[in-house]
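Q: What would this chain look like folded?
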Amino acid sequence: MPRDPSCVFCSIVAGEAQAHRVLEDEAVVAFLDRRPLFAGHVLVVPRAHRATLLELTDDEIGPFFGRVQRIARAVVEATEAKGSFVAMNNVVSQSVPHLHVHVVPRRPKDGLRGFFWPRMRYQSEEHAAAVAAGIRAMLDQRE
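A: My prediction, written as C-alpha cells:
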C-alpha cells in the first residue's frame, strides 16, 4: 500500500498516530476530525496514500465513496442531525496532502455560512471517544 512517511494521515492509517476511529477496512480509515465543525465531524481517507481525488484508481473510487455514503448515514443517525455536509478539497485549501472527505452533521440554523467556519474542540478525550462509539454503533447496525 503506498504510504508517505511524512503524512499524518498515513501515520493514523498505520496506527502510529492516535485517532478516534469510526471505521477501518481494506479501503478506508475514517476518524473524528481533531478540530471539528461540530461533534461527529468525520474524515474519511483512503488507506493508500493518494494526495487528491485525481489519484484514486478506477478500482478505488467505488469502494471509497461507498464508505463515504455509509459514514454520512451513520453520522446523521448517531448525532441526530437533520442532514450532513460532505466535502473535499483538492490541493487548494487541503490542509493535509492526503485525500480526505469531510462528513459533518448539520442542523437548521447551526451557524455555518459560507466557508469561514469556526472550529471547536471536543470537551475531552472521553467525549470524543463517546461520539466515535456512537457512529461506530450506527455503522455496525447497517452491516
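The chain is about 30% helix and 15% strand.
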